[in-house]
Automatic annotation (TrEMBL):
<keyword id="KW-0349">Heme</keyword>
<dbReference type="GO" id="GO:0020037">
    <property type="term" value="F:heme binding"/>
</dbReference>
<keyword id="KW-0479">Metal-binding</keyword>
<feature type="binding site" description="proximal binding residue">
    <location>
        <position position="413"/>
    </location>
    <ligand>
        <name>heme b</name>
    </ligand>
</feature>
<dbReference type="GO" id="GO:0046872">
    <property type="term" value="F:metal ion binding"/>
</dbReference>
<comment type="similarity">
    <text>Belongs to the indoleamine 2,3-dioxygenase family.</text>
</comment>
<dbReference type="GO" id="GO:0034354">
    <property type="term" value="P:'de novo' NAD+ biosynthetic process from L-tryptophan"/>
</dbReference>
<protein>
    <recommendedName>
        <fullName>Indoleamine 2,3-dioxygenase</fullName>
        <ecNumber>1.13.11.52</ecNumber>
    </recommendedName>
</protein>
<dbReference type="GO" id="GO:0019441">
    <property type="term" value="P:L-tryptophan catabolic process to kynurenine"/>
</dbReference>
<dbReference type="GO" id="GO:0005737">
    <property type="term" value="C:cytoplasm"/>
</dbReference>
<comment type="function">
    <text>Produces N-formyl-kynurenine through the oxidation of tryptophan.</text>
</comment>
<dbReference type="Pfam" id="PF01231">
    <property type="entry name" value="IDO"/>
</dbReference>
<keyword id="KW-0560">Oxidoreductase</keyword>
<keyword id="KW-0408">Iron</keyword>
<dbReference type="InterPro" id="IPR000898">
    <property type="entry name" value="Indolamine_dOase"/>
</dbReference>
<dbReference type="GO" id="GO:0033754">
    <property type="term" value="F:indoleamine 2,3-dioxygenase activity"/>
</dbReference>
<dbReference type="InterPro" id="IPR037217">
    <property type="entry name" value="Trp/Indoleamine_2_3_dOase-like"/>
</dbReference>
Amino acid sequence: MFFFILFYVSEALIYTQAMLSSFYIKALRPYLKALTDCLHESAKYTSRTAAKQHETDQALQEMIDKDGAGSWPPKASHKDSWPTALRPYHDIFLELAPLLPVYKVSVDDAINQSRRIEFRTRLQELLRERVDLPAVESVLSTVENEDPSLLQGHAYNGLFACMGYLRHAFRWGTVPVVKCAQEEKIIDFPSELEIPWAFVCRRYGIKSQGGSIMSNFCCNIDEEGRLVYQVNGSMPKKVSSAEHNFVFSFTETEKRALPIYQHIVQSIISFEQGQNQECAEHLKSVNVHLRKAMRVYYEQVIESKIPRSIFVGYMQGFHGWAAGKVVDGEYTEYDGLSGGHLVLFNLLDCFLGLNTFIDEEKFANYIPASQRRFIASVKKHSFRGQVERAGLSELEAQLDGIVKQLRTFRSAHSKRTSRYLSVESPERMVMTAGASTLESGSKATVNDLVSIVDAGLRKKMKETI
Ligand code: HEM
């Protein structure tokens, strides 16, 4: 409340300044300006500190600070901001990336396997020649235990992306993904990729052996919005720009989601303070910003931006994983990237009192700890049930608007996904990036995949009520 009073008083002072200028009473203006600035700052500070006391706001701030390096979507810097020992990784990926994609993919396993071996051998050679592993281990250990400033948040994010791309490059060895690579379920990574990955997993609080939406997409964008690590940079423009559009459709959605997070937090705070009118205003803003965020999907995931003919081969496959490890005699498989790992959709489900698409185990494998904490804090403070029980119709209407938008997205997403996945790719077994290969492996058809994925996505859509 105090924040609003300060805000309106300072707004009134701005108006008074303007009036005074028109009356040529200029002498008073500097004093009024100083007072206005002071009140504005004070209003900002009051809003921050008051809201900061709330668990959800603390969790949002922590997510932005820790994973986002001070902004959202996360800020990332690559190579120059890293300690010298880590820089060869960046150069090695850029140097070898052109060897990954092949324009006309073979269906001959022997040819594909020899391409993979050639790529992996070259990658291993460069890692051995250029990476000083003890120095890498020492610097990452110093960052972890003594001096985090050696690798600041944005720089660690850049390294996360680089490691993600290098590990996916080693896992597949060629693009499009081919059957013999999918059959390989345990990957013998070189130590140069294994040792730093353990630090990365602890840093972000994740378990997967492969990359995630956070590493491969969010942390792979430079200040100008360009992809830093690109798989198809050497391919014709149609393919390389589709790769950019695909990544952008996720990162831009998260970018537009930040005001949604802020208004969700504020709606929770005002609801808990019994200020229903203010709460309704925040929910209205959630609806406005959600429309802008959803527009990204509707405008990007279309044939002219991401052609169906190249999606499975050049966009999706590389970001899949479908491999794992054996611990105490038990095999655990990890998936690759999935839209189901984005903060926005999990957060909305939790805020609306719905189940999330992915389960606890997947949360722990792929979603960084501070993002999980933010989502969990919003789930804890979800108030939709209370609104319905109390029959608060204005709040209910706004919450229903959010549900409706989410359901419409899910309906469009399931239809478009079926079209993208229904393209035949004879060089490989059917697979999605986020859900690996089907149990029936090489016998499963594209139709099997489409109907299983569609059933899952449509079920989620129907549950969005
Ligand atoms: C060509 C583009 C896309 C295709 C083919 C596609 C495909 C899929 C598939 C197959 C799944 C099921 C689980 C998995 O394997 O990951 C999925 C889940 C999901 N995707 Fe996408 N996706 C695309 C783009 C996007 C974009 C741009 C977004 C959002 C910005 C998105 C958001 C989601 C969400 C939230 C889920 C979890 C299910 C849900 O909550 O309804 N997807 N997607």
